[in-house]
Specification:
By secondary structure, this protein is α+β, with helices and mostly antiparallel strands. 21% of the residues lie in helices and 25% in strands. The chain has one domain. The protein has 3 helices and 5 strands. The radius of gyration is 19 Å and the shape is globular. The termini are far apart. The longest helix has 12 residues.
């Protein structure tokens, strides 16, 4: 699940990595009683020209199963990345292997939403009137 967040200067909810980490910590606490992990280990993402963080939690009921039932997932990854000066992207990813190509591809896809300054649409200059 992806959720886009407006974060203009007047809101300033995710305009620093510390604010993002706090948001992930607060919103992920509810998962701890049902996870293998007993404390949140928030990791910072290495993003060129941006910042983000995430946490991976292991579902305690599913972790012991050799093969999870359909619709069950061993891991949930929850995080936030800064997309642009006025937006952030939150994500929740449920998957059964965090060491898979599929997981890496999805995380790359999430990172691909970051708007780099050189990727803004070029505005064409108005044509000069004929002399």
């Amino acid at each position: 699940m992806l959720y886009f967040k407006c974060d203009t200067p007047d809101l300033a909810q995710f305009d620093t990595i510390k604010k993002m980490e706090r948001s992930i910590r607060v919103s992920s606490k509810k998962y701890l009683p049902h996870s293998v992990e007993k404390k949140l280990n928030i990791k910072r993402m290495k993003l060129k020209g941006s910042y983000g963080c995430y946490v991976v939690l292991t579902d305690a009921e599913v972790a012991s199963k050799a093969k999870p039932d359909e619709g069950e997932f061993k891991y949930i990854t929850r995080g936030l990345i800064r997309l642009s000066p006025d937006s952030a992207l939150g994500f929740s990813l449920m998957i059964n292997s965090i060491d898979s190509d599929e997981y890496r591809k999805i995380m790359d896809y999430i990172r691909s939403f970051i708007k780099k300054p050189d990727q803004s649409p070029k505005q064409k200059s108005p044509k000069r009137a004929a002399r």
